[in-house]
Write a structure and sequence with these properties.
single chain; 305 residues; 5% strand; rod-shaped
Length: 305
């Protein structure tokens, strides 16, 4: 027994699952999975499909659930076949992405893989340029130092309004500015920055910018994929397995009492007919007119031969 789609679309979703369970592809998968050619003693795919289809009944019950019934001469095999249908449906549901949430998850996965590949390419480009030119990531360091210098200068200008140049805090801040200016001077004068051609430095700046952009896209794609997976798990359109098939303790058919009753009635009916026929033959032999008619018919038959 399977629980179908969520509220509002249960009927349509159940119809899709029933169509899959009754499809030729599903029957072929079952034939391959359980080697049914050997079971049905046939080499014909069509005959095997007809056999497994004849043993299987799939329908939506009044409870809104999908009911799957498999009959077989072997009760253990009947249980295996029923559970096999469910396993194949689970796999098909993953591949086909029947629900909207699953489709969104597949789209998010494709976008994530694309962003991941873009990030890998950007990282490789920066690495190759560093190895080729000897450039290191000093551009961001210089920019960070310049930002700290600008901030310190603004603080000094603000303090100059209210304190004198001999104020200890003002002196400390001026010393900090001096140290920062020395640091940025060293960075700009280093071989990795100053000795490189300007076009190489510009190329490196572009590639590091592309790397940051790729990293941002990667993070966005990762977040979208995570949300899509959560939505798919919460989605009510995926089916749930309510009851797995178990090996039946009793035969589902044929019902012996019903068979005996039908056989008895048929035998009684045949006996009545035979009794009437015998009685009719007996009466016809006692009737002279019937005997004459019988002889006439017999003579005609001999003449015809």
């Amino acid at each position: 027994m399977l629980g179908g789609g969520g509220a509002g679309g249960m009927g349509g979703q159940n119809d899709i699952y029933i169509a899959i369970l009754s499809s030729r592809t599903m029957h072929d998968q079952m034939i391959k999975r359980f080697n049914l050619f050997k079971v049905y003693q046939t080499k014909s795919s069509e005959s095997a499909r007809n056999a497994i289809a004849g043993q299987t009944e799939v329908k939506t019950g009044k409870d809104g659930m999908i009911h799957l019934l498999v009959t077989d001469t072997d009760p253990k095999r009947a249980s295996l076949l029923a559970n096999g249908y469910v396993d194949e449906l689970l796999e098909a549901n993953t591949k086909l992405a029947l629900s909207d949430a699953a489709q969104r998850r597949l789209f998010a996965e494709s976008q994530f893989l694309k962003a991941k590949n873009t990030l890998a390419d950007a990282e490789l480009a920066v690495k190759q340029l560093q190895e080729k030119t000897g450039l290191i990531t000093v551009g961001p360091q210089v920019a960070q130092l310049q930002g700290m210098i600008n901030s310190t200068m603004r603080q000094l200008n603000d303090m100059a309004i209210s304190v004198t140049s001999n104020d200890p805090e003002y002196i400390k801040l001026r010393q900090k500015l001096s140290n920062l200016q020395a640091e940025i001077g060293k960075a700009q004068a280093g071989p990795a920055y100053a000795t490189q051609a300007p076009e190489r430095i510009l190329d490196f700046t572009h590639k590091t910018r592309d790397l940051k952009y790729a990293e941002a896209l990667y993070q966005i794609a990762l977040q979208q994929l995570t949300v899509a997976k959560i939505d798919e798990e919460k989605s009510g359109t995926t089916f749930q397995i309510i009851d797995r098939a178990t090996i039946p303790e009793q035969k589902s058919g044929p019902v012996r009492s019903r068979t005996i009753l039908i056989t008895s009635l048929a035998a009684l009916f045949a006996a009545i007919i035979i009794a009437f026929l015998l009685e009719a033959i007996k009466r016809s032999k006692q009737n002279p007119e019937s005997i004459t008619q019988y002889k006439t018919i017999k003579n005609h038959l001999k003449t015809w031969k």
